[in-house]
Amino acid sequence: MPLVHFFETSVGRTTERRIVLVTVHCEGVDGWGECTAGERPFYSEESTDTAWYVLRECLAPAFIGLELDSGRDAARRMPAVRGHRMAKAALENAVWDAEAQVKQVPLWKLVGGNRKEVPAGVSIGIQDSHEQLLEQIEAEVAAGYQRIKVKVKPGWDVEVLAKIRAQFPEIMLSCDADSSYTLDHAEHLKQFDQYRLLMLEQPLWSDEIYLHSLLQYELSTSLCLDESILSARHALAAIELKACRILNVKLGRVGGFSEAIRIHDVSLAAEIPALCGGMLESGIGRSHNVALSTLNGFSLPGDVSASARYWKEDIIEPEVTVAPWGTIVVSDSVGRGYTIKEDLIERLTVRKETFRG
Ligand code: MG
Q1: How far is the CA of 103 from the centre of ligand 1 (A)?
Q2: What are the structural domains, with CATH classification, of the chain?
Q3: Where are the beta strands (DSSP E) in 193-297?
Q4: 71-93 burial by CB neighbour count: b if 16+ within 10 A, else e?
Q5: How far is the C-alpha of 165 from the C-alpha of 140, rounded, in Å?
Q6: In this structure, are residues 89 and 31 in contact, taking their beta carbons and an 8 Å threshold?
Q7: Active site residues
Q8: Centre of ligand 1 from the C-alpha of residue 182, in Å
Q9: Which of 238, 243, 277 is CA-nearest to residue 43?
Q10: Cis ω on the peptide bond leading into residue 318 (within 30° of 0)?
Q11: In this predicted model, what pLDDT tens digit does every residue of 194-252 receive, in sequence order?
Q12: Contact present, 145 and 129 (Cβ < 8 Å)
């Protein structure tokens, strides 16, 4: 699926997505899940092709003919594969999606959500020029988004933040470094404090928690951890170490709804606000993010935005839209709340494999 506008972070530029989707057929319904792994292993160790391999060789065969009570049960019954959480999440979330349909309840209720509307935020990548970035922010603010997050890296940071604040003094503004700094940048990062940021996301190494606590101690800006939180255990460690004041939860990164809910529960108990992160999902992953965002602890606007920001045509209908007041109104219909455009998916499909019992 070609993106309507390239998305660039400190690790590179994405212009189109090649996405693994998983469908589970059970009790007369089809549950869908999306693997959020990138085309190349730049965000994490996983990629589209490693996910394909793990699903095909390890996960899917183990689920043929399996009797499951719930999506939660699916997480417990995964084969003993280490890591590969995005591949696991695609399968687990498909089971949750099916469970909601079998039980005739909205997915957001099944995962324990309450919110009828979720606050929408937007993440804007690194652009070719400052002017281009400011124009994009202007458009997103006009579209109603409650929070703007910009990507930063050494050389694209303080000057950019200063220009944004000069033009938009009051917006809720975050930034995300995608692990592009080290502790040697601590003095430099202190300059971020003057821009009244909601947070600085994952400034240091993608597998680091402890050193973030040293940096957090130095900064008044709240840190948010993304890449380095893979489980509820990591979330607890980060909270106890005071390594962050906000948590970014991504369904794929943590292995699916079960672990995401566990992380949510840890953060809620510790009064650490959470936000639902985004991974350039198609409508399937996007609809699952909407469901997750209805949980009480997701009190901050996340990265869940309208389909049209990313795709000329999304693979669900209706597409995810953002109301002029900056929220996504949650559907009360059964399941994920959005219909799958199977014909479109078929047209976009380049490889497919079916496992039967
Ligand atoms: Mg991030």
Answers
A1: 34
A2: 2-105+340-348 (3.30.390.10), 110-329 (3.20.20.120)
A3: 199-201, 223-225, 246-249, 274-276
A4: bbebbeebeeeeebbbbbbbbbb
A5: 15
A6: no
A7: 151, 250
A8: 16
A9: 277
A10: yes
A11: 999 999 999 999 999 999 999 999 999 999 999 999 999 999 999 999 999 999 999 99
A12: no
Q: Assign 3-state DSSP to the chain and report helix, strand, coil percentages, each to 5.
A: 40, 20, 45
- DSSP code at position 240: H
C-alpha–C-alpha distance, residues 205 and 227, integer Å = 9
- What would the two tokens of residue 44 be? 């994490």
Which SS3 state, helix, strand or coil, does residue 169 take?
A: coil
Task: Classify residue 356 as exposed, middle or buried by CB count within 10 Å of its CB (0-12, 13-18, 19+).
Answer: exposed
Closest CA to 130 of 175, 162, 160, 174: 160
Q: Exposed/middle/buried for 69, CB within 10 Å: 0-12, 13-18, 19+?
A: exposed
The residue written with tokens 């417990």 in the block is 76
Residues ≥6 apart with Cβ < 8 Å to 181 = 154, 188, 189, 203, 204
Does the reported pTM lie above 0.85? yes
The tens digit of pLDDT for each residue in 294-344 reads 999 999 999 999 999 999 999 999 999 999 999 999 999 999 999 999 999
Residue 207 CA, ligand 1 centroid: distance in Å: 13
Spatial separation of the C-alpha atoms in residues 258 and 275, rounded to whole Å: 16
- The residues, any chain, with a CB within 8 Å of residue 157's CB and separated by 6 or more, are 175, 177, 192
Structure tokens at 38: 């990138």
